[in-house]
Amino acid sequence: MSETPLLSLVVAVYNGEKFLSTFFDSIKNQNIESLEMIIVNDGSTDGSTEIITRYADIFPLFRVIDQPNGGVSAARNTGLAIAQGKYLAFPDIDDVIYPCMYTRLLEIAVTNDLDVATCNGMYIYDDGRPAKKIFPSDRLSSTGVLDGPTWLNMALESRKFLHVTWLNIYRHDFIRKQGFTFEHGLRHQDIPWTTEVLLTAQRVQYIDETYYDYLIHSASVSHTPGTDDTRMRSSRHYMKILEMLEAINQRYPEAVKRVPGCHWQIAKEGLGILHSINNIGDINKKREITRELFERGIWTLIWKNARGFKLRWRLGRRYFRLKKLIK
């Protein structure tokens, strides 16, 4: 193996014993000789450690860091801090990675000197619904080399873009130079991460080729009906995301002028917050989170970034109901 690995995989593991063997086998089948595996065992309490140990000798460069549970962002940051590869990737262990995914992405990244290389994937449902592409081909087709803001605007305008890290590889020098890290303790931290990465990337390419199955488990927390407490937690996570997106917009005003979708996504995620609040049954909890919405300035952010009469009309109707609630 060369002194500098071509690709570093930063893998967060928390109680993944059901998935790890399949995951490691899928990476072995990538047949990448110059590969660094960084496994961050994020406080697992099941049999993950034994499985990780069993696979340690299969990969030429296999590094394991054990740390107390801090969440996926903390685990990724730990791995990112020690990664040595020319390119980086952040796969999830409970999904399916096709055998040629990373070789294909590395091919276009090296050939075209990319900051970010992106492919397509499939939504796979365990309740019998038919699989479907994550990015529908009629909305997003393969591109040549674009600058990041151009691709981000195309992606957001499709209204089918999914903010994820696991369909991408990233040029390490670009990530290091920008100083990007993941926000600790934040669900859906890929939304601000992807936005800022693409606003600053100079060379990006998307290929409409399917190499990843994203498994949607009907029994998972994110796909089952929530409680009032989970809706409040979700609302607070998304409030933080809106604050981060607004700060990103302020950091890169010239790039954002070229990406109207940067405003749309704040309003869109804001509507999700309002929907969660509307579904809270306990009136006292609903009042508490509604007051926070206004006191933190989240309503102002949503309204400021809303574009078009239809969206503002929808928000206006909700505004008076919310204000009436907290009087």
From TrEMBL:
GO MF annotations in UniProt: hexosyltransferase activity
Alphabetical list of SUPFAM superfamilies matching this protein: Nucleotide-diphospho-sugar transferases
Residue ranges annotated for the Glycosyltransferase 2-like domain, each copy included: 8-133
One Pfam family it belongs to: Glycos_transf_2
Keywords: Glycosyltransferase, Transferase
Family matches, as Gene3D superfamilies: Spore Coat Polysaccharide Biosynthesis Protein SpsA, Chain A
Protein name: Glycosyl transferase
Lineage start: Bacteria, Pseudomonadati, Pseudomonadota, Gammaproteobacteria, Enterobacterales
